[in-house]
């Protein structure tokens, strides 16, 4: 039996249902420190299992469908978590959607991109990618962020960073149109712009060689692929659910440290995006930086393009205002990230320095969230 098949029949199959059982037992509880530690172990196992099954499915369906699948799957569940927290959360939840989406954008466009570029460039001298496809993705992310997070900070029809009903409807429809147009471009019209460049890689990955980098060229069978689809969904559900359970312990730690409550959302966003982060770093280490960038920008795009329409619909039943406009400090970080992202993408190749710049922007975001 190959190592790949053995992996599918081993801990990666057992971990998701075990994590689901842990979630069922712990859901709605406020775990003590020891219990929280055990839940954390289950959470980490679910994250690693999600990465494995996402790669199995990606091996079967090919790129860019594999990275798109993981990005959309994580984001759909993330949207459900945001809506659930807004409906059941205590206190003021008017800025919850904004803070969560902004955190996801900063983590993806700076954290995941930065890590991928550093790993790819250090291991292979330069991180290479297709500037046409990656540039289109970044342009879509910037436009989505501008329409949904920047514009509300400057509108005057409502007091505060709030959109009117008509404005929110337009933002939601524009988000869906932009995201749908990009998916069509990525998967149908110009799919080749989003495939990894392997022509200069001795022994590199190709569709007919080794799609998952495990030295086994044979793709998974249909049965194995569908099993991985089910286990991927189960893993992602448990990741988000266990992150919600762990949020109580995180809140206690944040309160004890005296940090702003927004830190809780950032930590949860980092946990939820962990599968994509690990998958992106592993792809970059195999000189498939294009796939890493597909994951990063695709996740940022899906986080906005799916979350805003869902929140717009949920706001019909939710009480209170929906504050989407960014604060001045957040605006500065978004502008800096956009400018640096453009300069990174245009050449089609990057040095480790480019990744370090992105990671420092993420560090600035984390620091200023803790100490604004």
UniProtKB/TrEMBL annotation:
GO cellular component: plasma membrane
InterPro entries found in the cross-reference section: Alkaline_pH_Ca-Antiporter, NaCa_Exmemb
Subcellular location: Membrane
Keyword Membrane belongs to the record: yes
Sodium/calcium exchanger membrane region domain boundaries: 39-187, 228-369
Molecular function GO terms recorded: potassium:proton antiporter activity; sodium:proton antiporter activity
Keywords in alphabetical order: Membrane, Transmembrane, Transmembrane helix
Transmembrane segments: 9-28, 34-53, 65-89, 101-122, 134-154, 166-185, 225-244, 256-274, 295-317, 329-346, 353-371
Membrane topology of the entry: Multi-pass membrane protein
Ranges in a coiled coil: none
Pfam families for this protein: Na_Ca_ex
Main subcellular localisation: membrane
Top-rank taxon, per record: Bacteria
Protein name per UniProt: Calcium/proton antiporter
